[in-house]
Amino acid sequence: MNFTQRLRQNDLLLGTMLTLPSPELAEMISSCGYDWLFMDGEHGNLSTLDWQRMLQAVAGRSAAIIRVATNSEREIKKILDIGADGIIAPQVNTADEARHVVACCKYPPQGIRGVGLARAQGYGRNFADYMKTANVSIAVIIQAEHIDAVNNIEEIVEVDGIDAVFIGPYDLSASMGLIGQVDHPEVVEAIDRVGRACQQRDISLGYFGTTAESVQAYASKGYHLICAGTDAGFVLGGAQQTLDKLRE
Ligand code: 3PY
Ligand code: MG
Question: Fewer Cβ atoms within 10 A, N terminus or C terminus of the chain?
């Protein structure tokens, strides 16, 4: 069963975030057994070619879900054409924006995705098979990470084709004047409103935290798309801890 099917049936999917242009790190981290990798093209300083090299290094061991920097048709098309298993669209604040993101991920007649011959289509060799399956096998994940998205969430989740809503606690807290206070009761209440709307529509929920501990509360609330930690955080944490021990 592929990632998107597992997402749609609400399997628990454990992931971590990649932010650095390193196929070797992607290879190592995917070999740990993560179900999925949240590859951050919004804040990470990577080109489409960097992502392609990293997908090649991951080699299907983990599902590769790339967060696009902008929700433009042009960018989403390129990211899907290099063979990502799905996208995460940041800052989707209205139902119209959600509809646009879904359309960018689907070939006509369901959407507006352009037809190309790239890595996703086996450079042409798997064209026919890919065309048959892509519209259902690509995961479309939108982020709720602004108070406007929270206020529109009941309308947003009515849009067909959304496979999961991923909370961005940091941007959400910032939009509420509580930057970084991801556990502030008002932020938690806003997140819970998103949670209720998604659960009513049986849409999977995702949450990011910098540590395993920070995502625990949401895993317990029934969130299934979990992302904990980052590549940079693992390297920094390990390097610092080792040096601190040496100094003791
Ligand atoms: C945020 O917290 O804003 C995020 O986008 C995390 O993925
Ligand atoms: Mg964000």
Answer: C
